[in-house]
Amino acid sequence: MEFVFTEEQQMMAEMAQGFLADRCTTADLRKLTDSGDTFDADRWAGLVDLGLLGALVPESAGGLGLGRADVIQIATACGAALLPEPLVDVMGVVLPALNDLGQDALVADVLKGAAHVALVHPDAQLVQDAPRGTHILVMTPEAVTLAGAEEVTLTAQPSIDPARALSSVSMDGGAIIAQDAEAFAQVARSGAAGALFAAAQLLGIAQKAIDISVAFACERQQFGKPIGSYQAIKHHLASAQVAVEFARPVLHAAAAPAATAARIAHAKIACGRAADLATRSAVQVHGGMGYTQETDVHLYLKRALALRRIWGSETDHRNRYAARLETSAFGPDTLFAKEA
């Protein structure tokens, strides 16, 4: 397993990071949510112009033709920036699924920004930003249905993350575009992709929460010196960083072209735990004010809680990984070198 990113992969990551640093700060996020909205149309248009939506779409269909390993850092950057728009799900799950299912015209419209497709999946049953969708893609193991916005009924649902507006969907119509074995396979592929890219966002959240807390601990003074000089603070943050560094290669291995569902499950578990430890430690380092909405770490904690619960819970992924442990051989070639 190669853990060094290529020049092209690094260039893609830097492009996304630069855009998000300019256009998606926590101040921007607060301004957006204070207005009662969770979607910045201008920022979405900028993402469309960069071509990031089509990263995993073949070049023949108007995309960039990249692989998951090429764009995993983009998802990580979106997590670190707390991007409220559903770029990761559209880029990583929706457009690859539509391309697989032969929806060429709709893929082209989404890539141009002329259409927006929201997704319902067994592992992500509440839809993000559904009211803005021109189409709803509903996946079940029995059938995949594509419906227009006028063919569904949306009901707003509570969200732990104020930057993620969620809705449940009731179908009033729509066209079945896959069923039986084809639908079952598509649900599995999309579920694995969703879990992988949620894990990447969680890793980005974890690292950013640590970075914010380290900066705060170096600046905040108590008893005449920075609180970061005290062992208790150091140990909190060091433990969180260790969890991130253990999760990082697990995520990169899961992004490999031949990665199995079990490897992706492992990544979702590891990155979820790292984000949980990092954000909770960040809140502790910030003291009592860490629990308030005025601190950025509070926003990271809420996003981590939200992402850990979609695209499969930790229990779901533990069960999937346990099945592999019970049926696979162990040895030097079953860790990172290749799949057993």
Give your account of this protein's structure.
This protein has 340 residues and is α+β, with helices and mostly antiparallel strands. It has a domain at 184-334: Butyryl-CoA Dehydrogenase, subunit A, domain 3 (Up-down Bundle), CATH 1.20.140.10. Helix content is 55%, strand content 11%. The strands form 3 sheets. Strands 1-3-4-7 form a 4-stranded mixed sheet. Strands 2-6-5 form a 3-stranded antiparallel sheet, with no helix packed on it. The chain starts with 6 loop residues before the first helix and ends in a 13-residue tail after the last helix.
Order of helices and strands: HHHHHHEEEEEEEHEEHHHH
Question: What overall geometry do the principal axes of the alpha carbons give?
Answer: globular
Secondary structure class reads alpha+beta
Largest sheet: 4 strands, mixed
Averaged pLDDT? 90
Low-pLDDT sequence parts: 336-340
Give the N-terminus to C-terminus distance in angstroms: 14 Å
Radius of gyration: 20 Å
Strand content: 5-15%
Secondary structure: number of strands: 9
CATH superfamily of the domain at 184-334: Butyryl-CoA Dehydrogenase, subunit A, domain 3
Helix content: 55-70%
> Briefly, what CATH class of the domain at 184-334?
Mainly Alpha
Architecture of the domain at 184-334 in CATH?
A: Up-down Bundle
Strand order of the largest sheet: 1-3-4-7
Please work out how many helical segments DSSP would assign. Answer: 11
The CATH topology label of the domain at 184-334 is Butyryl-CoA Dehydrogenase, subunit A, domain 3
